[in-house]
Amino acid sequence: MKAGLEVHQQLATTKLFCPCPSELSEQVERTVRRRLRATGGETRALDPAAKFESALGYSFLYEVVPTTCLVELDEEPPHAINPEALDVALTVSLLLHAAPIDEILVMRKLVIDGSNTAGFQRTALVAVGGWIDVGGHRISIDTVCLEEDAARKVSEAGGEVRYRLDRLGIPLVEVATGPDLTSPEQVRDVAQAIGALLRSTHRVRRGIGTIREDLNLSIEGGTRIEIKGVQELRLLPTYADEEIARQRLLVRIKEELHRRQAPPPTGPIVDVSELLKDVTAGPVRSVLKTGGVAMAVGLPGFHGLLGRPGEPGPRFGRELADYARTTGVRGILHSDELPEEGFGAAHVEQLRNRLSLGKDDAFVLVAHANSAKATEALRQVLQRATAALAGVPPETRDPLPDGTSRFSRPLPGRDRMYPETDVPPVPLSSEHLTKLGSHLPERPEETRARFREQFGLSDDVAALLLQEGEADRFESLVRRGQPPALVVRLLTHDLPAFAATPRTEPVPEPSDDLLDSVLRALSSGQFAKEGVQPVLEGVLLHKRSVDEAVMSAGLAPMSRPELEALVSGVLDRNETLLRTRGRAALSPLMGDLMREVRGRRDGKEVAQVLERALIERLEKMGGPP
Amino acid sequence: MGEPTFDPRKKIRSLPVGTEVELTPPDGRTWHGIIVPSTEFSGENIVVLKLASGYNVGLEVTERDVLTVISKPRRPRTSPTVETVSSPPTEPWVALLTTGGTIASRVDYQTGGVKPVRDEREILAAFPALDAEGPVHILPVFERFSEDIVPLDWVALAQKVGECFGLGAKGVVIAHGTDTLGFTAAALSFLVRNPPGPVALVGAQRSPDRPSSDGFTNLPAAIHLARSGELGEVVVVMHDGVSDDRLAIHRGTRVRKMHSSRRDAFESRNAPPIGYIEGKRIELGGEARRPTGSPLRIDARLDERVALVTYYPGLTPVRLRRFLRNERGLVLAGTGLGHVAREHLRGLRKLIEGGVTVGMTTQCLEGGTDPYVYATGRDLLRAGVVYLDDLLPETAYAKMMWALGQSEDPARVRALLLEDQVGEFVTRRRLEDLP
Q1: Which CATH class is domain B94-298?
Q2: Hey, what CATH class is B306-418 in?
Q3: Residues of B (79-138) whose Cβ lies below 8 Å from A
Q4: What 3-state class would DSSP assign to B16?
């Protein structure tokens, strides 16, 4: 495999072309409805991706939040580029040994899926030709760009897509590596290293979705595919593995089609509703019963290449279905998965006859209320099947939570870029670059070394803090007088565990002040470390003060006599266990006890009290110690 | 081809746009791209290259750079062409008059600005489904930004509108820059009398080279309205709100651009719009004027010798006189109910005695003028100033030119000004019509 990465990091400055805060909001004030149309750029040629999206004919509903101004709504020209954001991008460039451009020109990148109200994303190339060393390999950095983030997709239904405008315009630094990555693990390591470098500027946003990766990958005989917007860094190797498998399958299918001398599929698309009227189950039956149609098309030479549902690994049938779905149909049925229940072999045979198919040929079926929609869906299927003769079609793909990806749109070309004439060019003076260069932030590897020396952290722990993006918070909390070990535990154990708990509502990022007060309460003995999770829940989800959270979680510390009484009760209830296991009963009893103590007393102390009481009890019972 | 040249700064400037070059500065990096026009704000020694990624970069060329020409410019791709109708078709048709302006413009990548298109076919290329409901006859009248339009252009437009109706158009659409669209709409209202169908002025606040252009909604809606034939007056069709789903139909004499950039910049003052368009549905209010059946008349006489002056504290009589050379008319946008400083009383009286017609409007834009409430108003009225009720200053300016074109006699001009010609006075202003 050959892969490159584009790392997109949101900056914690105001927006790139207006003075709005870079904050997300749940407070929707009103909505605005818009449509977008594909337009030609400088060369007046239509970009394939833009044409594709325009053909979908979507209408867009934009949610306006309190932080939205006229610029995000495309009701006012963009302001000059945010100089603070530009400085962060330049600092990143210098950290990556990349050379800044003499005069920065803002471009419009045509994107008409509605994620930008203007129909284009503003982006500027800031620097080129750098490198970063990761795991003993020098990885080339092709470009560093500064661009505006897109609006947040909220929902999509019935040809209407809803976006929220809060994210639109947040500055993004985009770091693109060369196609130097050769293994799925290296993809992840490089992403982590670039992430740590970006965070070392201390000017980036934190939290889910504030850093996103595009993975560009191809294999021998395959094509460059872009998997766009991966938010889960740890899944990067999985996406790479799945994409390798998918491209391998497509290359095999291409070879097989050539061996079978399959001609390009051209149709015809045939209405087969009449043949299928007595199908007794599944989507075909429900669509036909409600007055819809079933349309089918033959795919010469594809028999056995589409795959069966439930089969492990990638399947070509899914590729066809992804294309069909862009027209709004729910899915397809194909000959490799038929017959099925209620759709008998006789139906399959009739269909094959009607479409005049040979034994090597496959067919695809779409049932829909509207025959034009079904026909359009099958045209997409034909287009995708035709592309299979050439191997892997260039695509932008959406990452899915299971590590696979789904077709999103054709890969855009350079025709989608044209100058943003509303924003003047920005000349970069060498004085300014020199000034930035002499104030570069500490590099991640320097921070790691300093953490070892200054705070006595092990190298692994220091590396973990940087990898998790917690270096800043660690330092801030330790400087407030918190013990390093306690802070490390909070940042690398308690907080990630808290964030990993599934919840319906989003969890706000805790401020350093808040974490400081939690730690203060913990180290002053208001609750034990086992109580950190419930306290975090109280302060973050229920907006309680730390004291209130401790109280309401029932974590007010237990007095020593209370603890001793609890221990004695546990021993009473478990006499049989004591008899059979003797001192070995300690560990199961400890588990029971901790559940009852629930963080109201330190675990170590609980263990001591229990052990002493257990020994006394065993002596009393007269059994062997 | 391929050999390095001597002074790369001179050489690169001599190369035509579209040349593919390789530029190697002393630091050893190589830039490979196509020369594109640099922007007018670019630095002096900056050359702009379009890289393979599509990005443009501004590079400072020094004498130590190595410049290699890779290939000459390729023939530029031509824009898609669409056949235009050369003679009026037999089915009901709509005339589309183009005048330049954002709706009929595209980005000029050389200057970075927006420029009028030179070829009306480009308009149809930019608006593919424009003639979906029937033929649209495109007639370029002139190509100017609306800030460059002069009163004589209004006359040319009025005559063109007359010709189109004469040839049987069901309605006429005028694509116009938005900056002075309100002026043109007001002027045409007085120049084009008894139109047998709608005369709809339309513009765009975003140029059609942007996917989000409001022109994609405004222009088809204006053509749809024109084809309906349901109105007999001059109107402006633009966005009613910032959404793309509803458009307002404004009476030409009451409409004003009230925002520099929003899609819903156009507002009717003192009264609601006379109608709305939502999708294919046209909804006309009771005030909308239907075709009367009376013969169309083009009143192309216009006297341009009119000044429009907004009063401001510090505008002395001496300064005011500088606006006036041989003017026959003066429209004042006065303060409040229609006032200027009392020191102007003598000068204005002298002007009026000399045959100049002085009209008074309010710079408040909302509400009417009234000379009777304050002493200044009463004195101005006695001096002969014509109080024009709630006419917008721009509408009063256009109406003054039209009225002066009709008569040499100040008394007659005054009468024409005070008479409602095309529904320009609102008179009954309701609480709920405040924006």
Answers
A1: alpha beta
A2: alpha beta
A3: 79-80, 107, 109, 112-114, 126
A4: coil
